[in-house]
């Protein structure tokens, strides 16, 4: 599959660069605003609001509904130009309307997420939200343009464009620190000027990455124009598909709201919104690099095979993708769990804060393998135009996640709330993928899940000793109080030492893991090695 290999290589390279610069952006951001504190959490929640809306728009409408439709439209004589002109006209108007409504609701949205915040913290969060919510429009257009590029097999720009956002933000936040100073984690340290500058930097980065995609649009070979004649483009069919997708993502949004409400009580001295989001950022590093780079081209191929009725090839794609992803994500999860404290130190202000934040990261990492499988299974349903079934198993997952999250304050103190809720999220994801796989089996017949589960089991058995070896090195180096955990040495920044320590631990785990798989001649190792060679351009 040379086309998939080239597409995966392009996406992987862009994703790695994007995530690497994203980590640097997060470090600079935390330096400016802190990781623990009421002001830090107020900004984090406000800046997350556009992302919540973006997730509904991108995953709920664009990925689930429009990509398969765009693939079908592209097979027409005009390459889909007529329908895409109508779609982009409608999409632009819809994004503007959603952005306007979100800004009107800003005070209520902040009050909803910061349920246990004091009035001053809510006021600061609302002020930040007014500056951050215009991102909704640009996020929406970014997703619409990017997914259209992907559907037209122009995979690179969507993966590479976020680098521009990161660079703009890094420069902006660094300038903010130089001019105004850093560690502004307390409410009294902010005034309207500082709020406007900080929020403006964040939003301008999203604007910049959207402009980059516009520049690359010509590679689709399509010329669009405003077209308000929406009759005849199949809005009825799209509406039926989108209804379930929106319902599914809204359910996910409810889960996020409940989780933020539960952990908001810990805001100030304990791990809360900022730690939660930084832990999620670290978790998303392997997920994006591995799952998105390999899974996105598979989704386009799944849509093509499904639209042509080639079910056998769809089943083969599913099994191959799960096993390929599994080999990589299993060791990624174990390696990051071992390096949780050093990885968390990069996004916190001290070793003590890193130790407090590490359990949140570990809680998320428990779901890395289930989510990788879920990515493929869910998109198989999308490839067949089925958005109702994904809603059903997402509602099932949401019920478990909400129920467990609401129980956590009765069991754990504020210092452990965020970690407990993160682990509950992982448990619900595992239950979701089990149900989703069973439902897909009912639809398509045998998916070879037995083979895939056995492969994942073998990968896990190989990853455990690899993780033990890396953890032994961490303990021998001094554990949580060592340089690996970010304890400064002769003026060397603790964050830098922690990053190096996390890299060393990860490398040890990976080397041992590969050696064990090679020793037992795991057949998937050769397949993945070939994929890696393609990803590196060899």
From TrEMBL:
GO cellular component entries: plasma membrane
Pfam family, one: MurJ
Compartment(s) of residence: Cell membrane
Molecular function terms, GO-annotated: lipid-linked peptidoglycan transporter activity
TM regions (residue ranges): 20-40, 52-75, 87-108, 128-146, 158-181, 193-217, 241-259, 279-300, 321-343, 355-377, 389-412, 418-441, 453-476, 496-520
Alphabetical GO biological process terms: lipid translocation; peptidoglycan biosynthetic process; regulation of cell shape
Keywords: Cell membrane, Cell shape, Membrane, Peptidoglycan synthesis, Transmembrane, Transmembrane helix
Topology in the lipid bilayer: Multi-pass membrane protein
Listed NCBIfam families: murJ_mviN (TIGR01695)
Protein name: Murein biosynthesis integral membrane protein MurJ
């Amino acid at each position: 599959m040379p086309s998939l290999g080239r597409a995966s290589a392009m996406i992987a390279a862009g994703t790695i660069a994007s995530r690497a610069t994203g980590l640097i952006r997060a470090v600079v951001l935390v330096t400016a605003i802190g990781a623990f504190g009421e002001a830090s959490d107020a900004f984090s929640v406000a800046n997350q609001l556009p992302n919540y809306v973006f997730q509904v728009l991108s995953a709920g409408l664009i990925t689930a509904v429009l990509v398969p439709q765009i693939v079908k439209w592209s097979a027409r004589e005009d390459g889909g130009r007529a329908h895409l002109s109508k779609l982009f006209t409608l999409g632009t108007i819809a994004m503007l309307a959603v952005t306007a409504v979100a800004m009107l609701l800003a005070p209520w949205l902040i009050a909803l997420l910061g349920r246990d915040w004091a009035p001053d913290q809510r006021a600061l969060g609302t002020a930040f939200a007014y500056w951050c919510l215009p991102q909704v429009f640009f996020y929406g257009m970014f997703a619409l343009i990017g997914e259209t590029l992907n559907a037209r097999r122009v995979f690179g720009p969507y993966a590479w464009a976020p680098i521009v956002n990161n660079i703009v933000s890094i420069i902006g936040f660094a300038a903010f620190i130089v001019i105004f100073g850093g560690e502004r984690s307390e409410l009294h340290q902010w005034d309207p000027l500082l709020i406007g500058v900080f929020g403006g930097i964040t939003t301008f980065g999203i604007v910049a990455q959207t402009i980059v995609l516009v520049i690359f649009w010509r590679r689709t070979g399509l010329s669009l124009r405003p077209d308000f004649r929406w009759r005849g483009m199949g809005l009825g069919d799209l509406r039926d598909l989108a209804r379930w997708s929106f319902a599914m993502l809204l359910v996910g949004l409810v889960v996020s709201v409940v989780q933020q409400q539960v952990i908001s009580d810990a805001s100030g001295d304990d791990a809360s919104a900022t730690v939660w989001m930084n832990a999620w950022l670290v978790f998303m590093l392997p997920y994006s690099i591995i799952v998105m780079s390999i899974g996105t081209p598979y989704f386009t191929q799944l849509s093509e095979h499904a639209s042509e009725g080639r079910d056998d090839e769809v089943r083969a794609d599913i099994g191959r993708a799960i096993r390929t992803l599994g080999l990589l994500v299993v060791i990624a999860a174990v390696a990051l769990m071992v390096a949780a404290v050093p990885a968390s130190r990069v996004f916190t202000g001290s070793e003590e804060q890193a130790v407090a934040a590490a359990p949140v990261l570990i809680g998320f990492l428990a779901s890395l393998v289930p989510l990788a499988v879920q990515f493929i299974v869910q998109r198989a349903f999308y490839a067949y135009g089925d958005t109702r079934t994904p809603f059903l198993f997402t509602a099932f997952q949401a019920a478990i996640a909400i129920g467990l999250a609401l129980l956590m304050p009765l069991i754990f103190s504020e210092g452990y709330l965020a970690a407990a809720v993160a682990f509950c999220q992982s448990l619900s994801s595992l239950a979701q993928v089990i149900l989703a796989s069973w439902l897909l089996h009912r639809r398509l017949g045998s998916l070879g899940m037995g083979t895939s589960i056995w492969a994942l089991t073998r990968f896990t058995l190989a990853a455990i000793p690899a993780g033990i070896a890396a953890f032994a090195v961490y303990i021998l180096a001094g554990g949580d109080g060592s340089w690996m955990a970010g304890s400064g040495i002769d003026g060397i920044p603790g964050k830098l030492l922690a990053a190096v320590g996390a890299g060393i631990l990860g490398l040890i785990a990976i080397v041992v893991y590969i050696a064990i798989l090679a020793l037992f001649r795991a057949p998937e190792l050769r397949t993945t090695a070939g994929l890696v060679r393609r990803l590196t351009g060899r």
